[in-house]
Specification:
alpha+beta, about 150 residues, six-stranded antiparallel sheet, 6 strands
Protein backbone atom coordinates (compact mmCIF):
# COMPACT_ATOMS: atom_id res chain seq x y z
CA UNK A 1 0.00 0.00 0.00
CA UNK A 2 1.31 3.43 -0.92
CA UNK A 3 2.12 5.78 1.97
CA UNK A 4 0.26 9.11 2.22
CA UNK A 5 3.12 11.43 1.22
CA UNK A 6 3.92 9.18 -1.74
CA UNK A 7 0.26 9.33 -2.76
CA UNK A 8 0.17 13.13 -2.46
CA UNK A 9 3.18 13.36 -4.77
CA UNK A 10 1.51 10.95 -7.22
CA UNK A 11 -1.72 12.96 -7.02
CA UNK A 12 0.09 16.25 -7.65
CA UNK A 13 1.93 14.80 -10.63
CA UNK A 14 -1.32 13.40 -12.11
CA UNK A 15 -4.09 15.83 -11.08
CA UNK A 16 -5.92 15.48 -14.40
CA UNK A 17 -6.39 11.75 -13.77
CA UNK A 18 -8.02 12.20 -10.35
CA UNK A 19 -11.07 13.85 -8.91
CA UNK A 20 -10.13 16.71 -6.55
CA UNK A 21 -8.58 16.06 -3.16
CA UNK A 22 -9.47 18.40 -0.29
CA UNK A 23 -7.12 21.36 0.00
CA UNK A 24 -5.73 20.02 3.30
CA UNK A 25 -3.17 18.14 1.19
CA UNK A 26 -1.26 21.35 0.46
CA UNK A 27 -1.57 23.17 3.80
CA UNK A 28 0.91 23.48 6.62
CA UNK A 29 -0.18 22.62 10.14
CA UNK A 30 1.24 24.18 13.29
CA UNK A 31 0.22 23.83 16.91
CA UNK A 32 -1.44 26.98 18.24
CA UNK A 33 -2.97 27.85 21.59
CA UNK A 34 -5.61 29.84 19.67
CA UNK A 35 -6.83 26.79 17.75
CA UNK A 36 -9.39 24.73 19.70
CA UNK A 37 -8.81 21.78 17.36
CA UNK A 38 -5.82 19.56 18.04
CA UNK A 39 -4.84 17.88 14.79
CA UNK A 40 -3.23 14.54 15.59
CA UNK A 41 -2.59 13.01 12.19
CA UNK A 42 -3.81 12.09 8.74
CA UNK A 43 -3.96 9.43 6.09
CA UNK A 44 -4.88 9.62 2.40
CA UNK A 45 -5.07 7.58 -0.74
CA UNK A 46 -7.55 6.87 -3.51
CA UNK A 47 -10.56 4.75 -4.25
CA UNK A 48 -9.99 4.34 -7.96
CA UNK A 49 -9.75 7.90 -9.30
CA UNK A 50 -11.31 9.39 -6.16
CA UNK A 51 -8.80 10.62 -3.54
CA UNK A 52 -9.77 10.53 0.11
CA UNK A 53 -8.21 12.35 3.04
CA UNK A 54 -8.70 11.30 6.66
CA UNK A 55 -7.70 13.32 9.70
CA UNK A 56 -7.70 12.42 13.38
CA UNK A 57 -8.56 15.47 15.48
CA UNK A 58 -9.49 16.27 19.04
CA UNK A 59 -11.98 19.04 19.55
CA UNK A 60 -14.34 18.18 22.40
CA UNK A 61 -13.91 14.50 21.60
CA UNK A 62 -11.73 12.50 19.23
CA UNK A 63 -12.91 12.28 15.65
CA UNK A 64 -11.83 10.69 12.44
CA UNK A 65 -12.97 12.92 9.63
CA UNK A 66 -13.09 11.57 6.08
CA UNK A 67 -13.15 13.89 3.07
CA UNK A 68 -14.05 12.66 -0.39
CA UNK A 69 -15.05 14.62 -3.50
CA UNK A 70 -18.75 14.82 -4.31
CA UNK A 71 -17.98 15.15 -8.02
CA UNK A 72 -20.06 12.60 -9.92
CA UNK A 73 -21.70 11.27 -6.73
CA UNK A 74 -23.43 14.44 -5.56
CA UNK A 75 -26.68 12.60 -4.78
CA UNK A 76 -25.16 9.76 -2.79
CA UNK A 77 -26.75 9.07 0.57
CA UNK A 78 -24.72 8.68 3.77
CA UNK A 79 -25.15 4.91 3.45
CA UNK A 80 -23.81 4.90 -0.12
CA UNK A 81 -20.76 6.98 0.85
CA UNK A 82 -20.06 4.82 3.92
CA UNK A 83 -20.48 1.66 1.83
CA UNK A 84 -17.92 3.03 -0.64
CA UNK A 85 -15.46 3.69 2.22
CA UNK A 86 -16.14 0.24 3.71
CA UNK A 87 -15.67 -1.42 0.32
CA UNK A 88 -12.28 0.27 0.00
CA UNK A 89 -11.30 -0.98 3.46
CA UNK A 90 -10.69 2.48 4.90
CA UNK A 91 -13.72 2.63 7.18
CA UNK A 92 -14.65 -0.26 9.41
CA UNK A 93 -17.39 0.48 11.94
CA UNK A 94 -17.25 -1.13 15.33
CA UNK A 95 -20.21 -2.52 17.24
CA UNK A 96 -22.11 0.29 18.93
CA UNK A 97 -20.42 3.07 16.97
CA UNK A 98 -22.56 6.22 16.93
CA UNK A 99 -24.02 7.07 13.55
CA UNK A 100 -21.47 9.14 11.60
CA UNK A 101 -22.50 12.66 10.63
CA UNK A 102 -22.11 13.67 7.00
CA UNK A 103 -22.03 17.15 5.52
CA UNK A 104 -21.17 18.70 2.17
CA UNK A 105 -18.47 21.35 2.48
CA UNK A 106 -16.58 23.53 0.02
CA UNK A 107 -12.82 23.85 0.44
CA UNK A 108 -10.73 26.97 -0.21
CA UNK A 109 -10.12 25.78 -3.79
CA UNK A 110 -13.90 25.82 -4.48
CA UNK A 111 -14.38 22.03 -4.62
CA UNK A 112 -17.23 20.25 -2.82
CA UNK A 113 -16.57 17.30 -0.53
CA UNK A 114 -18.46 14.93 1.67
CA UNK A 115 -17.19 15.35 5.21
CA UNK A 116 -17.92 12.28 7.33
CA UNK A 117 -17.29 12.65 11.07
CA UNK A 118 -16.81 9.47 13.08
CA UNK A 119 -16.45 9.83 16.84
CA UNK A 120 -13.65 7.66 18.20
CA UNK A 121 -14.77 6.03 21.46
CA UNK A 122 -12.79 6.33 24.67
CA UNK A 123 -10.36 3.46 25.09
CA UNK A 124 -10.38 2.69 21.38
CA UNK A 125 -8.36 -0.16 19.99
CA UNK A 126 -9.29 0.41 16.35
CA UNK A 127 -9.33 3.75 14.57
CA UNK A 128 -11.87 2.46 12.00
CA UNK A 129 -9.10 2.57 9.41
CA UNK A 130 -7.93 -0.64 7.80
CA UNK A 131 -5.90 -1.67 4.79
CA UNK A 132 -2.64 -0.26 6.09
CA UNK A 133 -4.46 2.83 7.30
CA UNK A 134 -2.03 4.28 9.76
CA UNK A 135 -2.36 7.79 11.08
CA UNK A 136 0.69 9.88 10.18
CA UNK A 137 1.70 13.04 12.02
CA UNK A 138 0.66 16.33 10.45
CA UNK A 139 4.23 17.49 11.06
CA UNK A 140 5.27 15.10 8.24
CA UNK A 141 2.79 16.78 5.89
CA UNK A 142 3.91 20.25 6.99
CA UNK A 143 7.57 19.38 6.38
CA UNK A 144 6.67 17.86 2.99
CA UNK A 145 4.73 20.99 1.99
CA UNK A 146 7.59 23.29 2.99
CA UNK A 147 9.61 21.76 0.16
CA UNK A 148 6.80 22.11 -2.41
CA UNK A 149 5.59 25.14 -4.30
Amino acid sequence: MIKPLEFIKLYRDNRKFYYPMIDLEHKRFYMSEDDPVLRIGFDCGAIGKRPYFVELVIEYSEFLTYYISTQGIENYSRKQVLDMLKGAGIYHPLEGEPRPKMYVITDDDGNDFFEIDVRVPDGYDDLYVEGGGSIYSFSNLTDFNKTKK
